[in-house]
Amino acid sequence: MPATSSERFARSLWTSHGGSGELIPLLQAAQDSYGYVPEEAMESISGITGIPVSEIYGVVTFYKQFRLTPVGRHIIKICNGTACHVNGSSMLESTIEDVLRIHRGETDGERLFTLESVNCIGCCSLAPVIMVDDETYGSLTPRKLTTLLKRLQREARAAVAGEVTHA
Amino acid sequence: MRRLSVGTATCGMAAGAGKVLERLQHLRAAEGLPLEVVETGCIGLCYSEPLVEVLEEGHHVLYGAMTPDLAERLARGQDDPELAARKIVEDGGPDRDGVLTHQRRIALRRCGHIDPGSLSDYLATGGYEALRRVLGGMSPKQVADSVTASGLRGRGGGGFPTGRKWGLAAASQGRHKYVICNADEGDPGAFMDRSLLEGDPFSILEGMAICGYAIGADAGIIYCRAEYPKALVRLRDAIGQAMAAGWLGDGILGSGFSFHVKIKEGAGAFVCGEETALMASIEGQRGMPRFRPPYPAVKGLWGLPTNINNVETLANVPWIIVEGPEAFAGMGTEDSKGTKVFALAGRIRRGGLVEVPMGMTLRQLIFEVGGGVPPGRTFKAVQLGGPSGGCIPARMADLPIDYKNISATGAIMGSGGMVVMDDTTCMVDVARYFLSFTQAESCGKCTFCRVGTKRMLEILERIVAGHGEEADIPRLESLARQVNASSLCGLGQTAPNPVLTTLRYFREEYEAHIREKCCPAHSCSALVRYSILADRCTGCGLCRKACPVSAIAGEAKAPHVIDEAVCIRCGKCVATCNFDAIRKD
User: Fold this and answer.
1) Angstrom distance (rounded) from CA B312 to CA B334
2) Residue B387, CA distances (Å) to B45, B381, B427, B552 in order
3) Rounded to whole angstroms, how far apart are CA atoms B216 and B427?
4) For B280-323, what is each residue's pLDDT tens digit?
5) Number of neighbours of residue A61 by Cβ within 10 angstroms
6) Residue B234 pLDDT more than 90?
């Protein structure tokens, strides 16, 4: 884990006033830094806010945004809004399953992609849509999505290979 | 100088506006073309994104379906038949598709026209005129009375009269008071608030400040979904600019009124759209609703008087102050005044964001504004109000849209998500879809909402899989009544609505699934058979390649066949075929 990510989380802990209203923003900072909420982060937050870890865990598991396990390099969010549903989002999901061999909530063996579903991205007129990190892709068909996924996979593998050679 | 504005709201970006913008910026920077390139929000014509508006010597032209190459031709001042065909509207005249002509834009008045990142654009289009008037001589009571006189009702779904809500919060005593803007737009199929936040963020801040003055609050909180990253960026930027220019902060415009706004990011829980759950979430707890009364106006966030309004409601407020409550009340019906923004999506040709006067019929909205269902399909129903709403059948489409009429159908006005369905949509599956949503989003506090929705979902799953029993329909009806009667908040009380309305208007579809084990819309995969029409198949082999289980075989250029025993009925062959050669029975 790069040092910078824990530094970012540490900074938000440092600037916190420790009020209970800051619990969710702190958890969000932890997830921004690590890609998930590690147990140690919950303990540090507990130390600052005085909220018991058990209660923090309750909050973490209540909200869909928080993850308790590490994720892949890219997060694919498949939109499962009404408009996407009636325009065939389930077919997109099975395309992702076929191409990347991951199901909802899973990360692939190379740790490149994590697949999540989201209620609605709010791009209903371009349904069906998916979001990869902060980028949205609309009006997809299984064929277009397959091309997109293969390209992303190639790029992600190349990025990993690049990092290895640099190291 | 030629000014080109590119619509870069989330929907525009998804359609490729980023590349268009990049090309234009490159032309300006690298080639020194005399251009002004700006970003703008969503004008609502999502069906023809990416959009570029050209403004030259007071002459406006909006072009749709742009590509980087086409945009480059616009930038170079070319005009050719290809560009002319993509012209949607010229100088505010009637638009090519009649989408804008039928609209009356109040909440969306600036969306897609101004640069949302520019306070000066906002000011140049009458921004902050309302706050100036309010602070320059209106009493808080006059402000609330104005809003009451306009007849504005909560646009988030509740429909509570906004002015009355403000009056209640104003009458409450507290050390501090809060104004909360509910931007936790969670209904799947709704994106009105996202477009407003991305396209006109200052108007929300202005609406909040006016509300703060009216109720005596000095702090505002915007509770926004984390799934809207662009809206969050726009809001943060707008707050920073408004603070720097003195439109937020201490002693605004030299008056004694101070108002500060903070953003709280939601963490992905639909129930947090409910006001008491939303406040619990801001306080750092699990977002679970609590019993009302006490209402937030009396005892809200941190136990202090709080007023919560939805984004669209607040966007209407500055307009009402400037144009007068009579102008707003002059539109709409007896029961519902003003306009309403709808997110038109689903099986519709021209989906997007539209704002129409209340009282327009569903048919006018779907056909005249939205262009109807895709060619060759039949309009079957329209879903209003998301998971809390219901499906209104095509035969009732001449109903004028207002709170009372919509409620009478069993659906609700909701926040404005309008999902159109055609003959390919299975109504039982739609009910199952919404139930799976509410079941997953139930916070778990009330037993009937937690367990009852689960049992209802199991029954619906059984029916769409072809294992339904005759007794399932009465079981669903009885559970629906119980879940409605014994849930604390709106989520549980309204969760059965999608099932009840589809049972009321499309009972025969349920019966077909149960008795004949068939899905009339050919949509439920367990009940569908695929076959290839030999006279249409060209043997191109695309379906064979698309099939994930190799159930399709055939020689090149000869008709292919599907092996039913292997077929998993995923439908990918249908989506891939260019010749309509695959039949669903």
Assistant:
1) 21
2) 25, 15, 14, 38
3) 48
4) 999 999 999 999 999 999 999 999 999 999 999 999 999 999 99
5) 11
6) yes
d(CA A116, CA B441): 16
Tell me which chain A residue has its CA closest to the CA of residue B196: A122
pLDDT in tens, B352-385: 899 999 999 999 999 999 999 999 999 999 999 9
Per the CB < 8 Å rule, is B575 touching A119? no
Maximum distance among all Cα pairs of chain B, rounded to whole angstroms: 82
CB-based burial label for B112 (10 Å; 0-12, 13-18, 19+):
buried
ipTM of the complex as predicted: 0.86
- The tokens for B10 are 């989330």
Whether A22 contacts chain B with CB within 8 A = yes
Interstrand relation of B552-553 and B417-422 (parallel, antiparallel or unpaired): unpaired
**Helix boundaries (H) for B486-585:** 490-494, 497-505, 507-511, 542-546, 572-576
Contact A83, B419 (CB under 8 A): yes
> Mean of the per-residue pLDDT values for chain B?
94
Q: Is A48 exposed, middle or buried (0-12, 13-18, 19+ CB in 10 A)?
A: middle
Tokens found for residue B571: 């439908």
Contact: B190, A120; criterion CB under 8 Å: yes
Kindly give the parts of chain A with pLDDT less than 50. Answer: 1-3
Q: Token pair for residue B94?
A: 């009637």
Would you state the structure tokens that stand for residue A120, as one six-digit string?
């609605």
